[in-house]
Design a protein that fits this description.
The structure is a homodimer. By secondary structure, chain A is an all-alpha fold. Chain A has helices at residues 11-29, 36-42, 47-53, 57-79, 85-97, 102-114, 119-145, 154-175, 181-193. Chain A binds a DNA duplex through residues 5-11, 14, 35-37, 45-49, 51-52, 55-58.
DNA sequence: AGTCCTGTTGACCATGCGATCAACAAAGGT
DNA sequence: ACCTTTGTTGATCGCATGGTCAACAGGACT
């Protein structure tokens, strides 16, 4: 137990620390573990200070979810910005199903569960899910425009793709088994819908 | 507040009441709401009595999850026991995605989340997921044997099917939107994999 | 009617949560 | 060197969780 008084920092700095601590706690132990005391302990500060910066813990949880998930989507955007539409699709699936992303999946699952008791979180979940949906739709749309994919309804394919990714990821969090064939299953199904022959 | 003392009942009867209360609470407010006090209040009994019958609350939560989900699978089994393999497949998808099943989906989602902190629950989740997997596999296997489906790997298709159902259901719990096209998306993808022309 | 078994309860305890607020103290400006 | 600002804290509250245990009392049996 460190009884020393914490050094004074600027509000921006402290706020950043709090967000960072919340983020790493969420990734390590789930969104449920993002608690006033846990965050305070991690940055060596009195619990009351967390309340002082974030008037409501619910809000911090929402922000943390949003930060983690938005960062993930940004990563995916980065991984899918070049190549043919089909290559980009494969990159998206590979990134989304990457086992190193388990922590993020767990955050999604917690958010689905917590969202039923935290309206703001539920809204954030919808918002982020929609952002994913838009990204996937765009990818399909450009592929169709480029003639790489059959003339399908992009929204429909995005739905299929994300539903499948979410479902398989959720299962793998519990099963702790990451069969590499998962990606193949997703790709095969999606590519078939897109009228693309499934290859190696 | 009813201050009357609860009537004496036989252990079996009381145990049944407790299980039943836990079950309806889980369906109405989620697995997270299955708490000593909530269960006791619902059957008009002192909280201590719940502990007296179920030494650990974790155990009651696990049993409740298992009961709800197993009942669901039984229902699905009932709905898919006659007709051609393709009809049975369609019945499975229709039942699994039925909006009236939202409560059960919420229970699944809570279990995924809670399972990370409750090892016994995680085991039950795996066990029930495997039971679903087996059922879906059998359905595909018989379809393949009957020549209705292409010669595919049943496990793979079951994987696709259940992943998709889980993912779409989880999303609909948050979005509270039940687009009837969901079933069409699932069927289209699965039937394509099975080499069956997708029809009305 | 009395006895005894056992289902049931109230009174607790320890722990964890979010939140409040007066009081402290570290830095920077004068 | 003093003062003022403000980042920080301790103490505490209210509430909820699971769990324990001695004591109560309903009801069947004698």
């Amino acid at each position: 137990m460190d009884t020393r008084r914490a050094a004074r920092k600027t509000p921006d700095e402290r706020d950043g620390e709090i967000r960072g601590a919340a983020r790493s706690i969420a990734l390590e132990q789930g969104l449920v573990a993002v608690t006033q005391r846990a965050v305070a302990a991690r940055i060596g500060v009195a619990p009351a200070l967390v309340t002082h910066y974030r008037s409501s813990m619910e809000g911090l949880v929402v922000d943390t979810f949003r930060a983690i998930v938005a960062a993930e989507l940004d990563e995916v955007r980065g991984a899918t910005q070049q190549g043919t539409a089909r290559e980009r699709l494969r990159a998206l699936v590979a990134t989304a199903l990457d086992p190193s992303r388990d922590a993020v999946t767990a955050v999604w699952v917690d958010a689905w569960s917590l969202g039923r008791r935290n309206a703001a979180l539920a809204a954030a979940v919808r918002e982020q899910a929609d952002a994913w949906q838009r990204h996937a739709e765009e990818l399909v749309t450009t592929g169709v425009a480029a003639g790489e994919f059959a003339d399908v309804e992009p929204a429909r394919i995005a739905w299929l793709l994300l539903g499948l990714v979410d479902g398989l990821n959720a299962q793998s969090v519990i099963h702790d088994r990451h069969d590499p064939r998962r990606a193949a299953v997703v790709l095969s199904a999606v590519e078939r819908e897109l009228g693309v022959a499934s290859g190696a």
